[in-house]
Amino acid sequence: MSLPVIRIAEAGKYEGQDVELRGWLYNKRSSGKLHFLQVRDGSAIIQAVLFKGDVTPELFERADKLGQETSLIVRGTVKADRRSALGFELGVKDVQVIQEARDYPITPKEHGVAYLMEHRHLWLRSSRQHVILRVRHTIEKAIRDFFDQDGFTLVDAPIFTPAACEGTSTLFEVPYFDMGKAYLTQSGQLYMEAAAMAFGKAYCFGPTFRAEKSKTRRHLTEFWMVEPEVAFMSLEEDMVLAERFISFIVQRVLEKHEKELVDVLERDVSKLKNVVPPFPRITYTEAIEYLQKAGHPAKWGDDFGGDEETVLANQFDRPVIVHRYPAEMKAFYFRHDPANPQVALGMDVLAPEGYGEIIGGGERESDMATLEDRIQKHNLPMDAFKWYLDLRRYGTVPHAGFGLGVERTVAWVCGLHHVRETIPFARMMERITP
Amino acid sequence: MSLPVIRIAEAGKYEGQDVELRGWLYNKRSSGKLHFLQVRDGSAIIQAVLFKGDVTPELFERADKLGQETSLIVRGTVKADRRSALGFELGVKDVQVIQEARDYPITPKEHGVAYLMEHRHLWLRSSRQHVILRVRHTIEKAIRDFFDQDGFTLVDAPIFTPAACEGTSTLFEVPYFDMGKAYLTQSGQLYMEAAAMAFGKAYCFGPTFRAEKSKTRRHLTEFWMVEPEVAFMSLEEDMVLAERFISFIVQRVLEKHEKELVDVLERDVSKLKNVVPPFPRITYTEAIEYLQKAGHPAKWGDDFGGDEETVLANQFDRPVIVHRYPAEMKAFYFRHDPANPQVALGMDVLAPEGYGEIIGGGERESDMATLEDRIQKHNLPMDAFKWYLDLRRYGTVPHAGFGLGVERTVAWVCGLHHVRETIPFARMMERITP
Asked: How many domains does chain A have?
């Protein structure tokens, strides 16, 4: 009998028909003459119902004993079932067991996080991880769609970078043939500045690395970042781009995953629905004043920690853009505000609900002499920046951009406390397995 | 005067209107009362025509002396011009110079490749590199669109991997905190097998690394690879997926870039138009027989070099799939052919015109005992594969997949001799700059 082999997510197209499903046993329960097998195939979960009268006694008996994650092929009739999340169930006619799984290490009971992380290759199969990683997929796709539709050219930044531009303390080193050491990129920004001069609008999107000796819930050693850079763009336009971009991502996730976010992750999606332009904008100086009024011992020149970011963000019902930070706090390449050289034309976007900074960016210094001067003042090796200075030597133009971290964005959108669940195989100071 | 600020590529929408363009001087020529400025902005190039009678004498005089890559803002009227590639030119009313560039290092004359690679941050601005990197963008987008539309979930594979699974000779090592060494990934396949068991259909797409001491025109130390993996997929279905996939990519490039491929890269696109399913399929054994008849000293058990691949591919007008290689030649995880255990259920896709292997893949061994046996025979550390064996222990199913290298695909589609131009910032044994 040659039945259509279908994926569970498309079962609705086959209502009333006999089909074949291939997947794994996710869960099961029995009630007398009925076994209810929850079968997953990676696209969705369906309830496959075995009625004692419909199958052989051997099969009915065996089905009761199948272990979680047994691989199987199920044949039967697709039927509407309004009670289920899928809307359909399968009236089983036959089950073919591929492999009986025994003692699957991840059971519906509670496991510790370290145990689950060590079993990440299996943990990926659970419903909760499924939703998170599908949201990640949607976010990554939305990121690319946004920039592709907006006339940006994808210009992959290199992972191996030559010089330790801003100190080596948080860089991973790699012995590189006879050339000494290469360093794993922390940001593609400098390369995107070259790309913006070539393509006008460019972005990169790939893994970046930070060898920070930090074990907080916001740190991974390997994380994905998207970095757009645009020629002739000002800080004000950069902020508009950032708010359009974030809104696009969040609304796309809601379109595709609202139900799962609510049902599986218990996310309060009303907070995500607010994420539409315009975002509130406050200067760093205003932010400090606010913190002081709120009783925080912050003073002008201090960096914000997680607590300060949360206090600032809690004033608003959507992300807030903080701009014009003290120039001293920012990297050498930021343009300073002509109206007030004490501050740099940089901006951060802070997510609501305590999820912290998800975007950092701003306008870059485009004047060569100023930039040379900064490189000297920061005691950076001029030679390593020769190519970067070429961008100011040959047809320099104002330009700006930003970077968005994927994992923090996924954590915020999904409402997760820790970033370790936001990436398929998290890498942290104490973890490089599986 | 507030004119619409437009990108050159969309000039056609503004015919007859005054607009503002922002970009760089790509080239120029003069003829008495006219200066013809080729202005690029990263989206396209437009000819901006200065008529002596239309602008101030100072501007007309200055325009004649502007150096290549001078950054400027040009205002004028968009006019149809059938002779130009764009179809439009600009009748200039005003030019505002942002920075006069002098002695731009890359002139229209010939430069050596080493010189150009050292100036890659500027070389990106040239028309030829523009076309290649736009084709790369289109290929990368087509790759994602293909899998996203086909129900695959993007599951990013980790870059840091723990064990040196198949010998360390071509792996880059990274000192990793107190955990000893991590290695940069050569392939996400093993992780995608875990992902396929979770999502049914999964793919990863990111940079991969190979520390090969090789300086050939086909080698980069850092290159991008896409790796789909599908549960319940056979070798035959894997070949169908591969040919559908490659055809999709090539036809998408032709849709978007046929003219540029012909005009700028002088690509014979008739050879690309043939790239539609079905692709010819030959077994490795048939391939050896063919080579022997063609006078090559190949014998059963030999690997194919570039010469052999070219001879094999030249028989066909589209890519050819070579399958069922000697099991001894293939990695431990390949399933052996039940009908002939001497051969593995692997396949390679060879591009036409001497571009060599662009896809390698096949069916994976799904039986745990067989796989354990292989790991032992290959003297691989069983402990490092414990998690991988879990995939066979808990609900194993037949599965298959493949990997496609982006740079070789770009080289083939663009007709490039060397892969170094196929990636924005190439990394090779002797190059990690700029």
From this structure: 2
In the prediction, which pLDDT does B166 show?
Answer: 60
Per-residue pLDDT of B338-393, as tens digits, reads: 999 999 999 999 999 999 999 999 999 999 999 999 999 999 999 999 999 999 99
What integer pLDDT is reported at residue B241 of this predicted model?
Answer: 98
* Whether B152 and B51 share a structural domain: no
Closest-CA residue of B relative to A423 is B156
Out of B71, B105, B209, the one facing A395 most closely (by C-beta) is: B71
Q: Residues A380-397: what's their mean pLDDT? A: 96
Interchain CB contact of A113 with B (< 8 Å): no
> In chain B, which residue's Cα lies nearest the Cα of A392?
B99
Nearest to B199 among A42, A162, A211 (CB): A42
Short-list A248, A14, A19, CA closest to A138: A248
Above pLDDT 70, what percent of chain B? 98
> Which one of B30, B64, B99 terminates a domain?
B99
Q: Mutation test of the interface with chain A: which of B22, B160, B385, choosing the one with the most A Cβ atoms within 10 A? A: B160
User: Average of pLDDT values for A310-334?
Assistant: 96
Query: Domain range for residue A360?
Result: 120-421
Q: Looking at the structure, do residues B227 and B376 belong to the same domain, yes or no?
A: yes
Q: Is A189 on the interface with B (CB under 8 A)?
A: no
Q: d(Cα B362, Cα B325) in Å, to the nearest integer?
A: 10
The answer to whether residue A431 is domain-embedded is no
Q: How many alpha carbons lie under 13 Å from residue A327 in its C-beta half-sphere?
A: 20
Contact B344, B285 (CB under 8 A): no
In a domain, B106, yes or no: no
Identify whether residues A39 and A125 lie together within a single domain. no
Residues B87 and B132 in one domain: no
Q: Tell whether A434 is within 8 A of chain B (Cβ).
A: yes
3-state secondary structure of A131: helix
The residue written with tokens 């731009």 in the block is B104
Going along B114-221, which residue ranges are E strands? Answer: 153-154, 160-161, 173-175, 181-184, 201-209
From B14's Cα to the closest Cα of chain A, the distance in A is 17
A164-195 pLDDT per residue, tens = 666 678 999 999 999 999 999 999 999 999 99
Q: Which of A43, A199, A396 sits opposite B42 (nearest CB)?
A: A199
ipTM: 0.97
Q: Give the pLDDT of residue A154.
A: 98
